[in-house]
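Q&A log
Question type: sequence-to-structure
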Amino acid sequence: MLPLCSIAQQTIINTASGKVEGLVHEGINVFKGIPFAEPPVGPLRWKAPVPIAAWSGTKKCIAYGASPVQNDPVPFMCWSKEFLIPKEPISEDCLYLNVWTKSTSTNSKKPVLVYIYGGGFRSGGSACPIYDGEAIAKKDLVFVSFNYRVGVFGFLSHPELSKETPYNTSGNYALLDMIAALKWVQQNIASFGGDPTKVTIAGQSAGAFAVNFLCASPLAKGLFTRAIAQSGGSVLPSAIRPSIKLQEAEAIGVDFAKKFNCNSIAELRAKSAKEIQAMNGGLSAPFEDGYVLPTSIYTIYKNGNQNDVDLMLGWNEDDKIMGKPLSAVEYKAQINKRFGEKSNRVLTHYPADNDEQASKSQGDMSRDESFGVQGFAWANMQHTSGKHPVYVYNFNRKLPYYSPETNFGAFHSGEIVYAFNNLHTLDRPWEKIDHQLAETMSDYWVNFVKTGNPNGASLVNWPTYDTNKRDVMILDKKTESTSLPTRDQLKFLEEHSLLNMKK
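Response status: OK
Response body:
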């Protein structure tokens, strides 16, 4: 006979669509693989998500749903298996969400954190080990994660698809999946002990870009009250996230269909998911479709038309996207070609007196152009045109490593396990300071979700951001508030980007 402690406890909840059964683990009710929309397959491929039909009986929700269609997960660079989806299942039938909660009483009314994964909008899923919600639920939040379509399945636009919709646009299905998940939260989270009036959306990398789009989209109005963006934003057009409008997106879709010799969307829908994925083309990022995003995020914020919510955002010291660094001579030549008469200013901020210095400058510039300036511009615009506060951080803790080959510093996505107090999900030689930082960061995150202010007892005071002081919280071996260390560099990049927008 099994000992009592090894027998899994079941927990059953009534949702608007039917009963779901989860498990209880260490006092936390865990539900995995709850469907929030009909499977986007067959005629529903490249359509807005359709609300899930009601079911009879009780649906077992004790395992993650399938991850969205993408290339097979293979560790690379700093991203070990813990950052990747399971090898299976992977399917178009992927619109499922997960809930971790202490209490299932409707009287609990706990604040809710809804997490959006990263992956460049081409990969990712909620089943990655580092996204486990148990530790955050133990700090009295309801934690929700969900899947959304990625790659061409999440963004294909085409004139024929636009004609199918009542709003005459197509694409951005991934964002519509996110909005559908948030609507599910509004309708059902009270049954899981959550408060639908206290919902925070959070995301990292592509998830942070998504948070920015949701903060700008009129379709998401009223679905959340706070937002957290970790290393991402889309306020300014950039090389990695260029500004695309509907006509351009549709043209990309037409070219994609031609690759298959398809003359209609029906023919394209008849192709298997494996064939579509193997073609490795089509649009794979959000764009200005005139519906989910009526105009540019910059314009929406400039006019004060954003969903004005409490905002926390930041980026990491080693957030960078670059290949092999150029020599000092090559780097200077590249800067001269790109910036012309502004080259001297650039080299003042990102110097290249020797190859070693040039290598560091290239990494710093990659970080600042990819993530820093977006967060900087977003914080500035929210402070200027919004009424709700902004809190900005820099995560600078260089993660412990086993060998020089695994030393990636404070790398892109390295902060996630600290913010969720999930060090146990990532295989690293953690030190005492890491556990302390994880407690501190997760307390900041939890306090922000609960009150809109990250501060709390025994925590270093985190001041609100304003465009004059530009104070940020440095999260490292020492947690301290200081003026943004890269403010001059980011101010230059912001001005340069805005000047290019006006040309």
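Response note: Residues 355-385 form the longest helix (31 residues).
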